[in-house]
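Q: How would the structure tokens look for this protein?
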Amino acid sequence: MKLWVALLLADCVFVGIGLTYLTGIKFRVEERFAYGAVLGFAALTLLGYTSAWAVGNLNGQVILGVAVSATALSIAGWRVGASRFIAECCDFSHRLRLPISQPENPVPLLVLTTPSWAIATWILHRAYLPDGTGGVLAGHLSSWTDWQVHLTYASSFAHAENFPPTLPTAIGIERLPYHFGIDFFAAMLDQAGLSAFGGIEVSSGYLAFAFVPVMYLAGTRLFDSRAVGAMGVLVFGLLGGLGWTNLFSDIADRGWSVIWNLPTDYTRHHTVNILLENAVTGNLFPQRPTLAGFSLLLIVIVLLHEAHLSGSRHLFAIAGFVVGLMPVFHVYSFGVALGLGLIWALLDRRWQWLLFGLPAVVFSLPAALWIRPFNTEIVFEQWVNGPWMQAPTYSMDQDTLFSFWWRNAGVFLGLMLVAQFWRDTLPRIVLWGSVPLWLWFVVPNFVRVAPSHPWNNTHWFVPMLLLGAFLVASVLVRLAAVGLWGKVGSITLLLTLTLAGALDIYKAVDPEVDVWPHPIASADGVAAGLWARDNTPVDSVFLVGFEHTHPVPALSGRQIVVGFAGWINDLGVIDWHQRQQQALMMLRGSAGTPKLLDALGVNYVVVGPIEQRALVNRQYWAERGTLVFKQGEYSIYEVA
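A: Here is the predicted structure in token form.
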């Protein structure tokens, strides 16, 4: 890793630890490192974003200034904490030598963190692989699909002066309706010395390393139990429905050899309508903003918990300020944090909650308005009956709400209810505070509150599963304490909850499964993208094909007429089909092409394999455009 990148990441942790001292909470040093890593990332990202917007571009000087400014801001915390930090480190060393049975011993944190970091490292190491010729291979589905749009967003910040942020994948959209914080951080890493691909990998890895410690430590503090903290991480991280039962039919059909090359995903099994993917393989890695959002959500709940216990006006205000900044990082976690906070305020009815609510609303409003989807209609429908993603032979009549969730969540929801009704399973404050969680399950089942594809409603379910995992863990831990049969029952329930997710994670780290690694950009495509980045004005508009793996927007960040339909339709750009038809007309040199080129301000046209599949008229562009780049199958023409 480049030195400047390592220093930038270290500064994030340093700044974040300093900020934890400003809370006044007596955190242990492991909490300061875990929470601080996330808070420092958020601080440097927001400072970088505002600074780059102010000067109009992101460069090394801006990043250096941001690092210095953030460090200076954290000094206020370090003035308080410098004398404590060494003592806290010594306390950690002392606790590490205590018997494992002692509740202060931090070994469970290390036991959880070690395999999670190993899995994250392996997945990220294989995200983008060189093909030996200058091209790039995708090592798994996440980097082949979702990460391509994140590459485009990050490149638009790093190399195309996308300030204020607009949507680079569709011309004429004057704002970016997406929580882009982690992609801006990737752009900072790119400019600090990594490639565009490296920025995506390292930004994901940094936050992936923080997530498990944050979740474990939050659960341990909220429930005053290491066992609940550890079990909560296992339940959420490995959660899957009953798709594991299909493993037996796979073994019956193909023999035991399927264990070494699993033929399907067991938390996303379309033929039987099992669709709620494992959190690791379906959310944390492909949906990169969740890596920031889930950790910030847990930190906010810890802050509010401590504020409620202490009555500290200072803590209420800090929690509100953090929530107010969350939309930039993950709007769904922000919605849960704000919603729970306001509901708890109504239940608690202390005036100090105003100190939370006012900054949470005031600070979040500008960002929330900027990144809101273009089509925000609310549709009342039973979500499980929506015609999405089922296999062609699947009938919606086969499903009820109960049967769908039984297959997709197993005993998870039932155990959440048990936790709330089994006396003394939950601390009293957690018992009443957890009741509103059900809103984030019930409402999305009957109200589509996201644009475009109804499957986007799953983004509301997953934060509920994140927090609900601690309730489920409380039941499993208490059941295990009953006796031998309680332990057997607890282990059995845990296996039914986690086996499908464990199979999918095992499949994700298998280096020889299915079609992975898979080509994502040829050497010629990479060269075309880098040429566009280095040799065209930052405000250039490109006409390209519509496939999600196009290297030119991904590596240059340049504005394109229209990109992959799924990415812009998901954001509520309802005229994407018309845009695509116009782009097809121009690529094929149809009548009216010159007028459309002029109306849309197109500067360059890419003619490559993706455009060839869109039936581009090569002769038209060879005659009408000026060839400015040619390598292998890729040509780029400048439009007069």
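The chain is about 60% helix and 5% strand.

The CA atoms of residues 387 and 395 lie 9 Å apart.

Upvote if useful.
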